[in-house]
Amino acid sequence: MTTRVEIINDFLAINVKPGTTIQDVVEAAGSALPFGCRNGECGTCVVEIVQGMEFLSEINEKERKVLKEVGVGANTQNLRLSCQMKIVKPNGVIRIKY
Ligand code: FES
């Protein structure tokens, strides 16, 4: 029971079990997505969720605060921090762009 995570920029896809963090996926897949603090404070790891938000953990307070600061433009509701979210449901497809 896995969910497929696709990192569009890198043409990478990986099937992972719920409970896996997106940071783990990025590192396992060999993506070039950059990280800074890895603690939800700097905003370096911000990504757009193109598809599959319903398969990810709820946005937390740290994300909400940082995304408010880094989010520009109208479409900020699809932005998330890779170091803070994890996959919570199987049998889905999550597409990420950075
Ligand atoms: S690496 Fe700093 S917020 Fe994710």
What does this structure look like?
The chain has a single domain, classed as Beta-grasp domain (Ubiquitin-like (UB roll), Roll), CATH 3.10.20. It has 2 helices and 5 strands; from the N terminus they run E-E-H-E-H-E-E. It has a 5-stranded mixed β-sheet. Strand 1 and strand 2 form a beta hairpin. The mean pLDDT is 92. The chain binds FE2/S2 (inorganic) cluster. The site of FE2/S2 (inorganic) cluster has 13 residues, from loops. The site of FE2/S2 (inorganic) cluster (FES) has 13 residues, from loops.
Strand-helix topology:
Blueprint lengths: L2 E5 L4 E5 L5 H8 L16 E6 L9 H10 L8 E3 L11 E5 L1
Parallel strand pairs: 1-5
Antiparallel strand pairs: 1-2, 3-4, 3-5
Bound molecules: FE2/S2 (inorganic) cluster.
Which descriptors apply to this entry?
single chain; 98 residues; alpha+beta; Ubiquitin-like (UB roll); 2 helices; 5 strands; 24% strand; binds FE2/S2 (inorganic) cluster
What is shown here, in short?
By secondary structure, the chain is an alpha+beta fold. Helices cover 18% and strands 24% of the residues.
